[in-house]
Amino acid sequence: MKITVVGGSKGTGAEFAKLAQQAGHEVTVLSRSGQAPHSVRALAGDASDPQVVRDAVAGADAVVLTVGAAKKVPQQRALVTQTVIGAMQVAGVRRLVVQSSLGAGDSGSQLPGFLRFVMLLALAKPLADHNAQEAHVTSSGLAWTIVRPSGLTNNEATGRWKALTASEAGTLGGTITRSDLAAYLLHALNDDSSIGQAISLSNR
Fold it and tell me: CA Rg, the chain, in Å?
């Protein structure tokens, strides 16, 4: 599979790019810095620029979006997501997996009880960005999956996770490693049952 990762120069996106390449996929990373994991094809450019993104997704089978916030851009994730969706629609690329955040959309009840109100208050602005991002995704007409991780850590991968769809009751743990999140993104990309689902995720 040919996969374009938007926002894959570091963090979860870089972890995903490495795993996907190791699994035999052809991976391209688009980032402002032009950095990518060793031997992964890298493109430098602004992911809010439609032409840059059209060039990056041309010929891809799927796009994985792990973009973060940006200084002085109030809703960077939503802006980039809207641009990526437009480029995919032009290019005829259908499969999209997006990293959002636990607490976004209708997932507030899945937050750990001791963190629920603190996180929703302290992360109001990032969550507003994720909510706008998710609105673009769900109205895109693409074959999308939204993944909402809990707090991210740089700990070693555990190979385990707890996943809840938006319709499932329950609460999640407070953290998940970036490596485990990346592995789940790859799992979801290959799982057609995840299409049209918003899935919350933690290590336990």
Answer: 16
The dihedral sign for the CA sequence 77, 68, 91, 135: negative
Burial group, residue 138, by CB count within 10 angstroms (0-12, 13-18, 19+) = middle
CA–CA separation, 72 vs 79, rounded Å?
A: 13
CA nearest to 3, candidates 23, 25, 30: 25
Longest dimension (CA), the chain: 45
pLDDT tens per residue across span 157-194: 999 999 999 999 999 999 999 999 999 999 999 999 99
- Bridge partners of 153, per DSSP, are 177
* Domains, the chain: 2-202 (3.40.50.720)
Which residues does 124 contact at the CB level (< 8 Å), separation at least 6? none
Give average pLDDT by consecutive 10-residue segment, the chain, 204 residues. Answer: 95 97 98 93 96 98 93 88 98 98 93 75 86 98 98 96 95 96 98 98 96
- Is the CB of residue 152 less than 8 Å from the CB of residue 175? yes
The amino acid sitting at 28 is T
